[in-house]
Design goal:
Order of helices and strands: EHEHEHEHEHHEEEEEHEEEEEH
Strand order of the largest sheet: 2-1-3-4-5
Number of helices: 8
Number of strands: 15
Oligomer: single chain
Distance between the termini: 65 Å
Length: about 250
């Protein structure tokens, strides 16, 4: 028997989904909520096996709520959405499922059958989910999804201190910790567009708001000292010095 919880700030949609779920033999609806704030406490307390979660809630983004739930325990999360066909196709490729509004009993049955066969997401599945979250976020979005111990952290961009390339991947150094992530430094330049980040060296992108000191180095070069990383100054490429000084009003 699966315990289900429904989160939707539109009562008619919530009532419809609860009604359809109650027709499923091995599903018990143990709770429902009309806001992310109300849902979070109840979900953590009741520990449902499946959370049906609307993406656009009036008080928070459903993806943020999912991240908070997954940081505590690992239920199956099924997104309810009215997004377009492109977004739905992206969801269809993931370990997580979706329900397109308005709901139908036939589509819900397919979802339940899929969940009956699911195990906990593996690393490849999580990577696909991360890719989906990145696609769905606008460039001006303030957060970036990052895999942290098998869960998804939505890391605020302004908490990132610097990003460095390491072998064929990158390391994100942030106020929330350090994270090894796939992709190139060029990929991260794109992800951080619109925020005060600058590629100060072929191996480093820095947050200009987190620069603590600029230190003259040998042969007319410079190093930057970043907040929280005082013991590891970062080099500045020769061709980046003038632009860095301009950005920092030096």
């Amino acid at each position: 028997m699966y315990k289900a919880f429904v989160v939707d700030d539109e009562k008619p949609s919530r009532d419809e989904l609860v009604y359809l779920l109650k027709q499923v033999e091995d599903i018990t609806v143990i709770g429902e909520a009309g806001s992310g704030e109300d849902a979070l406490d109840e979900i953590i307390q009741k520990r449902p096996d499946i959370v049906f979660l609307d993406i656009e809630l009036h008080d928070m983004n459903g993806l943020e709520l999912a991240e908070q739930v997954l940081s505590v325990y690992n239920p199956h999360i099924v997104f309810a959405t009215a997004y377009d066909a492109y977004a739905i196709k992206a969801f269809e490729l993931q370990a997580l499922d979706y329900l397109l509004k308005p709901f139908s009993a036939q589509r819900l049955s397919a979802t339940i059958n899929r969940l009956r066969q699911m195990s906990e997401p593996d690393e490849k599945q999580l990577a696909k989910i991360l890719d989906l979250l990145e696609r769905k976020q606008h460039k001006e979005s303030s957060k970036i999804p990052i895999n942290r111990d098998g869960k998804i952290l939505l890391l605020p961009k302004d908490k990132i201190v610097f990003v460095e390339t390491q072998e064929r991947n990158c390391v994100v150094h942030s106020e929330a910790g350090e994270f090894h992530v796939p992709g190139s430094l060029s990929d991260w330049e794109v992800k951080l567009q619109g925020y005060p980040f600058f590629r100060v060296h072929r191996s480093f992108i820095i947050n200009l708001d987190k620069v603590k000191e600029v230190i003259p180095w040998f042969q007319n070069t410079y190093q930057v000292v970043m907040d929280g990383y005082e013991s590891t100054p970062l080099p500045v490429g020769r061709n980046k010095i003038a632009l860095l000084k301009e950005f920092l009003n030096l």
